[in-house]
Amino acid sequence: MTTALTRRSDRRISPVFVGILAVTAVTGWATWTGFAEQPGLAVFLFVTAAWIVSLCLHEYAHARTALHSGDISVGAKGYLTLNPLKYTHALLSIVLPVIFVIMGGIGLPGGAVFIERGRIRGRWRHSLISAAGPLTNVLFAVVCTAPFWLDALDGVPSDFRFALAFLALLQVTAAILNFLPVPGLDGYGVIEPWLSQKVRRQVEPFAPFGLLFVFALLWVPEVNGVFFDMIDAVLRGLGISDFDTYCGYDLFRFWRDSNELCSISG
Prior knowledge:
Strand content: under 5%
Number of helices: 12
Order of helices and strands: HHHHHHHHHHHH
Mean pLDDT: 88
Shape: globular
Low-confidence stretches: none
Helix content: 55-70%
Radius of gyration: 19 Å
Structural class: mainly alpha
């Protein structure tokens, strides 16, 4: 019913998103075939474009779930077109997460779509809207890791395998970080409807700084070490080795000297 109240143009996939998909496909093909003169550049463009695609799908999942929960305003805001330029803050939603990937190989969450929560009734619906985004990252991670845990890597070029492993790492880190019960992140959004009004009012002033708090914590060597040990354990459980993710990140940073071990393994 709520879907019918949105115009068809509000749900038409944006040419911007189609363009990002095209870059993902072309650079993925170049990585697979070895067509690119600089394989590292192809891996960089492939992983970056695919990462932006996942960010768009993350925000789309929030918006689509909100639409079916009662917030029909998301269509008019352009959130259902998968256009990243329609988000509440394009810089936070796209540019900043890409910078985090380049700086530290971490899939930090970005900005968000604005949901009119007053239109939505029921705590479960509010929680589901918040959970929909990181669950999309979980699904993306499952797709990226499928060739590994299905033991279907025969014939897969090493550069593409490394790129896929690094992309999987980004999705796993994004899912875990997003589910943290920190104000401003989706994990807190999941539990917020179940908290008292008093607690919510006390926590609300800290919401704009939640992402910065997480980012600062990850710069602490001890916290960073524990966090990535957990990420590596999850990826190993999905069949991806530390070597695969290391070489993926090494190729991604094409402007640096590549590790010879990764080249030899290819």
